Amino acid sequence: LAKTTQPISMDSYEGQEVNITCSHNNIATNDYITWYQQFPSQGPRFIIQGYKTKVTNEVASLFIPADRKSSTLSLPRVSLSDTAVYYCLVASGAGSYQLTFGKGTKLSVIP
Amino acid sequence: NAGVTQTPKFRVLKTGQSMTLLCAQDMNHEYMYWYRQDPGMGLRLIHYSVGEGTTAKGEVPDGYNVSRLKKQNFLLGLESAAPSQTSVYFCASRDPGQGAQDTQYFGPGTRLTVL
Q1: What whole-number distance in Å separates Cα of residue A29 and Cα of residue A1?
Q2: How far apart are CA B79 and CA A77, in angstroms?
Q3: Which end of chain B has fewer CB atoms surrounding its CB within 10 Å, N or C?
Q4: B105 and B91 in contact (C-beta within 8 Å)?
């Protein structure tokens, strides 16, 4: 299982763009990168997933460089409701039974 | 669809008591998972199942047992509760048939306190 490293915490003001970087140096060829969001007292929920280059959905963008040893989750114009813990996971999809959650990055959005 | 549901939402046990946590999913997913989350920590995998009648150990299986008698249900048992098992327990399900879309769906959690 590929190990991931993220900052423990980040602060941002409302309206700013937030970028959270995840390091995964030993990512395997078949591995995908997935980000989850967890609000207090709730289970994590899927945000975005990608394999290479850039992926965008209605919530966030995910940037993955060519060597795939890191990835950056980008949240545009954050609001107070984006205050949560964000987890980066690396797994190979259907062949990967276990998914390892690290400690995540606690994002605090300041008014 | 209710998604993933967990029963109960809260429970207080005394040391040595036993209990079973129930997880149910209505998405026909093959894989199901039990995690625990301690304050300020990420999720740690306790046990998981890749299909009806199968179970496997995760990262922290000691003190827990599981059963998957029906595809939609995954039970987590504590035979003799200890204070170290005070935690929030999350259940999740996942459908490997969707290929690369590696989405786990989580339940709302069960907050367990062992005195």
Answers
A1: 12
A2: 48
A3: N
A4: no
Radius of gyration of chain A (CA): 13
A51 CB within 8 Å of a chain B CB: yes
User: d(Cα A110, Cα A99) in Å, to the nearest integer?
Assistant: 31
Chain A: give the shortest CA distance to residue B81, in Å: 22
CA distance B14 to chain A (A): 23
**Which of B43, B45, B47, B112 best tests the A interface by mutation, with the highest count of A CBs <10 A?**
B43
- B102–A99 C-beta distance less than 8 A: yes
Distances (CA, A) of B43 to A65, B2, B57, B111: 27, 23, 15, 14
B99 touches chain A (CB under 8 A): yes
User: A52-109, pLDDT tens digit by residue?
Assistant: 899 999 999 999 999 999 999 999 999 999 999 999 988 765 556 677 788 899 999 9
Tens digits of residue pLDDT in B40-95: 788 899 999 999 999 999 989 999 999 999 999 999 999 999 999 999 999 999 87
Alpha-carbon span A14 to A78, nearest angstrom: 5
Closest alpha carbon to A46 in A97, A12, A91, A11: A91
Strand partners, B48: B33, B56
